[in-house]
From TrEMBL:
It catalyses: O-phospho-L-threonyl-[protein] + H2O = L-threonyl-[protein] + phosphate. It comes from Populus euphratica. Signal peptide: none annotated. Its cofactor is Mn(2+). Residues 178-183 form the Serine/threonine specific protein phosphatases domain. Belongs to the PPP phosphatase family. The gene is LOC105135091. Its EC number is 3.1.3.16. This is Serine/threonine-protein phosphatase. It is an enzyme of class 3 (hydrolase). PROSITE patterns: SER_THR_PHOSPHATASE. InterPro entries: Calcineurin-like_PHP, Metallo-depent_PP-like, MPP_PP7, PPP_phosphatase, Ser/Thr-sp_prot-phosphatase.
Amino acid sequence: MSGSLPSGCPSDHEPAATNSPEEATTTTTTSIPEGPSQPPFQIPLSWPSNSSVTLDWIQNLISSFDWSSKNLPPSELPSVLPVSVFDALVLTASKILHKEPNCVRIDDCNENSRVVVVGDVHGQLHDVMFLLQDAGFPCEDRFFVFNGDYVDRGAWGLENFLLLLAWKVFLPQRVFLLRGNHESKYCTSVYGFEKEVLAKYGDKGKHVYRKCLGCFEGLPLASVIAGRVYTAHGGLFRSESITPSKRSKGKKNRRIILNSETKPLCLGSLEELSKARRSVLDPPWEGQNLIPGDVLWSDPTMKSGLSPNTERGIGLLWGPDCTEDFLKKFELKLIIRSHEGPDAREKRPGLGGMDEGYTIDHVVPSGKLITLFSAPDYPQFQATEERYKNKGAYIVLKPPCFDDPEFLSFEAITPRPAVNAYYDYKDVIDSDEELDLASMVTST
């Protein structure tokens, strides 16, 4: 299933050290040259005969995706990656992912290890390829934790997701792929991924999309790194021992009716997280699916306490006191979450912007809460000429305790290959707000 662990990689680049853990190193990128008219390698790609993915196979996959994005129309992707190869890759990765717990524990770090944490990447393939080169490829001493939102918004969500699945198959104990709120049926139907897949694989598109959704179900929800750092896409979650909210009946576009008799909200435990049911694409708001909804959709605030996340219509808002309680209770020092890009943060008074690709939201006696966003110049498609021009960032955690984050900011790879959007970015709601959550209800 996977090859032997490489101790180093061709791009074994260590990011430059910073003067303090809260000072980011910025990497300025240069424009990528136009690709050749003919690929410098053999396509279509074939699945390894022994199903053993190698570093060479992944590098060919990277080169193939890079070349095709610049030289072929999206509908020609099957000529690069046939459906049979897609099926083999997704099946192999899904078997690995579905066996992982809701919260993966990364404990086999040593004095030579580095852990790279990556936030939202949203279909921005060329920036992901740069990030992997800049941080150094995954290998025996370099772990990667991706914090979700691989698809939607950007034009290469499928290539993004498949590339990361390939790394997971190659190094399953060094690459960890967590789930974001966009790894769902609802979001992918609104923000472009479904249409992207149909455009790229034509009459096989529905098959490819269904296989991706099935793989999304297997993505873990959170990680704990070296017993010190908790990472999840949205963040914290409530205890499930509360009275569920009710749904209105008899209307197609029914809305949530908050139960006035709901008990006071309280933080959930890592034990409750481990027992949550994650194998539902669009988590309802009750029972064993309540916690996944919180983990994927919640946001921090500067106001104390836990409260419903009315802006999004799902999940929670939690204050610095909750961050302190969670860190102290589970003997952690750091929470790294993602979920908010520059468009979301400009609407969030009291919290920092996403210009550098990260913010330190809470500083409490037991540690810190960080929001990490790894998609620079986001979103790719924007209705106005004025852009956010944000940088992306990733975090490097080092020994001895792996809880003193080093921030590496980077600019977008330009120019992006010319391509059309797969969603109506001019009219679609921003930042996943005011969602029609009724359409997320699935049978359980």
